[in-house]
Structure of SIMPL domain-containing protein:
Amino acid sequence: MRQLSALALAAALALPLAATAMAEEARVPMINVTGTGTVEAAPDVATLSIGVTTQGETAVAALAANSAAMEAVMARLAAAGVEARDMQTSNLSVNPNWTGYDSGTPTISGYVAANLLTVTIRDLAGLGPVLDAAVQDGANTLNGLSFGFADPEPLLDEARKEAVADARARAELLAAAAGVKLGRILSISEGAPEGGPVPMYKAELAAAPVPVAAGAMDVAASVTIFYEIAE
């Protein structure tokens, strides 16, 4: 019982001390800066969203036609070098085609089936032929083409290093302008990058093979650092 009382007393005494220490830390003069870093690199992977839309008198007929067309598209993509693991169905729908709204009595005039496929292309040199192969075998919807990196972490690490160096340079500039010196780092936090990577590309479905330019992409990082002002 005495031991418990002693522990309780020690804890009670420690709380004010901890609070005092935190208050002292809060009164430390600081410089707060945010640094950014950007690394530019050529993308090495592309993500393509293509689709097949078909019509039929019945839902079964529309879906059967759609399935046959999508199977042909996937077979052609596989023949072009796209692996099965890089093709994924992202949406499948069958809906009635309503007509006659002007007459005030809408009726169902057949059905529309739509199937979207997300394709990851790891060999950008073959991106144009892959696009051409897809549209030749029934893909009649192109929903988007974007570029990225198979492993962005090394690029992010370089951007983080640049962000820290940028923050340090900003802090030194501010300290020199204020006539003070930088002390130790009190905290570092990573923030969301300003903006996102913007791919630059061109795709024209009128030619074969499709001309596509991946361009370059920026990988950005941001850090916020609190420096102590040395006395």
Summary: Helices lie at 2-26, 59-79, 127-136, 153-178. The longest strand covers residues 107-121. Residues 17-23, 194-208 have pLDDT under 50 and may be disordered. The longest helix spans residues 153-178.
